[in-house]
TrEMBL record:
Organism from which the protein derives: Mortierella isabellina
Region of interest (Disordered), residue spans: 1-29
Protein name (record): Ubiquitin-like protein ATG12
Location(s) in or outside the cell: Preautophagosomal structure membrane
Membrane topology qualifier: Peripheral membrane protein
Length: 129
């Protein structure tokens, strides 16, 4: 009977190892999800870069509320540059594309942020499509 007890004990140990091994990744996933929720972005650091003959800002980094739409960034930059609504101003993310005015800043940052910044290039004539 001792042999069967040892066999049962080994099977029991294998079950425990399997159960413990499966539980660890699940806990890790839950921890990652919890940390992501805790790190929800409230402000995004935006870096403005002038292109071509656009005026250069004295201060290039600004904190902008992440829940705002890109239209708010456009209004803010126009105010900083003393541009009117009729003055041409083109804005691009990472020198690549012009986001829609209703895009949320946090979504743009999560998708296209680099080195902790959302880089926005601006110019007075169309540069990229």
């Amino acid at each position: 009977m001792e042999g069967s007890e040892v066999g049962n004990q080994q099977e029991s140990n294998k079950d425990k190892e399997t159960t413990e091994h499966v539980a660890s990744p699940t806990e890790t996933l839950e921890q990652v999800i919890r940390q992501k929720k805790e790190k929800d972005i409230t402000k995004v650091i935006v870096q403005f870069r002038a292109i071509g003959n656009a005026p250069i800002l004295k201060q290039k980094l600004f904190k902008i509320t992440a829940s705002q739409k890109f239209q708010a960034v456009t209004i803010f930059l126009r105010k900083e540059l003393n541009y009117g609504a009729s003055d041409p101003l083109f804005m691009y993310i990472n020198s690549a594309f012009a986001p829609a005015p209703d895009e949320i800043i946090s979504n743009l940052y999560k998708s296209f942020g680099t080195d902790g910044f959302l880089v926005i290039n601006y110019c007075t004539t169309a540069a990229w499509g």
